[in-house]
């Protein structure tokens, strides 16, 4: 196992740069211009091992005369991941977070709240919401919720994407309005857009941010309208002088009409000249479900 010195040591900026470069390199190879003293320190901490030019451990080759290089060990990889985690995300007490798939002792995608700042050994205290128990976990196993990296305050709206729901099947999406605070199970009340305002309970780890809207199209307004279904997919284009006439034309359209009757209405949007060049079916509208 890694030495106590290796576990508790906080890398200098130079050492952190080498660790991150090796983490992203093929076979986690340390850059060739690393200075010798740093390599000696890494070796003492069991963060690296020395290899021959053909990839054999140098310690297993007697009297090897050629060039060697260093690669991260699993202790070195964990040290590099701790550096990246601390640089990429703020560990603020009270912040919601989610444990990653390779987190030990706790099931993947478990909701937690951060209970303190990370220790020098790269561990951080977290409260597991489902069990209301606290434990220390490696910082590189903790990440922000998809719903937003700040997560101290939740957004008003989100997209609900269940990860494991056999009844609904894959591809289920729901735009929801969040209410209140998460409960002890890591779930929050939400008003469902898919179910016309029904209040449901959804896990925070299954929420994603609302996609940003595309930039406004250029050009002049036309008499052409895009007709979209509940998901925002374009089903047809029709002509109309105004909104009521466009909706009436949509009801008579051979494709848009059945969609409107099946979904209790469709959305229509007047197009600008630049959008007319886009083939029918490729424009997107604002979904009533994501």
Description:
With about 290 residues, the chain is an alpha+beta fold. It is about 20% helix and about 25% strand. It contains six helices and 15 strands. The strands form four sheets. A five-stranded antiparallel β-sheet has the order 6-5-4-3-7, with no helix packed on it. A five-stranded antiparallel β-sheet has the order 11-10-9-8-12, with no helix packed on it. A hairpin with a 6-residue loop joins strand 10 (about 185-190) and strand 11. Helix 2 (about 15-25) crosses helix 4 (about 75-90). It is elongated, with a radius of gyration of 27 Å. It starts with a helix and ends in an 18-residue tail after the last strand.
Q: SSE layout and pairings?
A:
Elements: H1 4-8, H2 13-24, H3 36-44, E1 48-52, E2 68-72, H4 74-88, E3 96-99, E4 111-114, E5 123-128, E6 133-138, E7 142-143, E8 157-160, E9 174-179, E10 187-192, E11 199-203, E12 207-208, E13 221-228, E14 234-239, H5 243-252, H6 256-263, E15 267-272
Antiparallel strand pairs: 1-2, 3-4, 3-7, 4-5, 5-6, 8-9, 8-12, 9-10, 10-11, 13-14, 13-15
Helix pairs in contact: 2-4
Taking the sheet with the most strands, its summary is: 5 strands, antiparallel
* Radius of gyration based on Cα positions: 27 Å
Strand line-up across the major sheet: 6-5-4-3-7
> Quick check: average pLDDT?
82
Overview in brief:
With 290 residues, the protein is an alpha+beta fold. It is built from 6 helices and 15 strands. The protein has helices at 4-8, 13-24, 36-44, 74-88, 243-252, 256-263; strands at residues 48-52, 68-72, 96-99, 111-114, 123-128, 133-138, 142-143, 157-160, 174-179, 187-192, 199-203, 207-208, 221-228, 234-239, 267-272.
């Amino acid at each position: 196992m890694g030495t106590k010195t290796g576990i508790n040591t906080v890398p200098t900026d130079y050492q952190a740069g080498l660790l991150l470069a090796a983490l992203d390199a093929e076979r986690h190879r340390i850059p060739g211009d690393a200075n010798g003293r740093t390599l000696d320190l890494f070796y003492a901490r069991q963060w690296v091992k020395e290899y021959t030019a053909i990839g054999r451990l140098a310690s297993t080759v007697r009297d090897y005369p050629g060039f060697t290089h260093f690669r991260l060990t699993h202790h070195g990889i964990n040290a590099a991941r701790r550096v990246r985690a601390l640089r990429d995300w703020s560990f603020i007490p009270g912040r919601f977070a989610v444990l990653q798939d390779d987190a030990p002792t706790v099931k993947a995608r478990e909701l937690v709240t951060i209970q303190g700042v990370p220790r020098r050994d790269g561990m951080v205290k977290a409260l597991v919401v489902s069990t209301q128990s606290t434990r220390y976990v490696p910082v590189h196993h903790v990440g922000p919720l998809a719903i937003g990296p700040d997560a101290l305050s939740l957004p008003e709206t989100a997209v609900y994407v269940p990860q494991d729901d056999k009844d609904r099947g894959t591809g289920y999406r729901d735009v929801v309005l969040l209410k209140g605070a998460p409960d002890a199970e890591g779930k929050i009340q939400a008003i469902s857009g898919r179910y016309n305002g029904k209040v449901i309970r959804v896990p925070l780890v299954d929420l994603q941010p609302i996609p940003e809207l595309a930039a406004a199209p250029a050009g002049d307004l036309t008499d052409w309208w895009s007709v979209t279904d509940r998901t925002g997919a374009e089903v047809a284009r029709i002509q109309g002088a105004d909104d009521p006439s466009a909706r009436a034309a949509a009801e008579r359209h051979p494709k848009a009409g059945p969609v409107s009757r099946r979904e209790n209405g469709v959305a229509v949007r007047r197009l600008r000249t630049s959008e007319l060049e886009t083939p029918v079916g490729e424009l997107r509208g604002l979904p009533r479900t994501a």
